[in-house]
Design goal:
Distance between the termini: 44 Å
Strand order of the largest sheet: 1-2
Helix content: 40-55%
Number of strands: 2
Largest sheet: 2 strands, antiparallel
Shape: globular
Order of helices and strands: HHHHEEH
CATH superfamily of one domain: Winged helix-like DNA-binding domain superfamily/Winged helix DNA-binding domain
Low-confidence stretches: 1-7
Strand content: 5-15%
Number of helices: 5
CATH class of one domain: Mainly Alpha
Length: 108
């Protein structure tokens, strides 16, 4: 059985496998934080930037564009940025990771 490949080549991966493309996207600085901040509902650019403390407007804009292209974030006038159904499904995997991270942080 061969793995399906994505249409676009993935930075750091010669395989083009979907899981590598997803890990590449999620591994970019600030990407996971954006998804995490949007988990409770839509936010405007300004609110999102304030919540992320330290992200530059240009980097935030780039990451949001990448997430929109990946169909994980959508934008609408008045509402701002929000997770798509794909990102909501992805976030279901992040909740157990958050629980683990909290336990791991208290390990001392």
């Amino acid at each position: 059985m061969t793995a399906r490949k994505t249409a676009r080549r993935v930075r750091g991966s010669a395989t083009g496998r979907p899981v590598m493309a997803l890990l590449d996207l999620l591994g970019r600085r600030w990407t996971m934080r954006i998804l995490w901040e949007l988990r409770d509902g839509p936010m405007t650019f300004r609110c999102l930037q304030d919540a992320m403390e330290g992200v530059s407007p240009s980097v935030l804009n780039t990451r949001l564009r990448e997430l929109r292209e990946a169909a994980l974030v959508e934008h609408s006038e008045g509402r701002g940025y929000a997770l798509t159904r794909w990102a909501i499904e992805l976030s279901e995997f992040l909740v157990p990771m958050d629980a683990f991270a909290r336990r791991w942080a208290r390990r001392r």
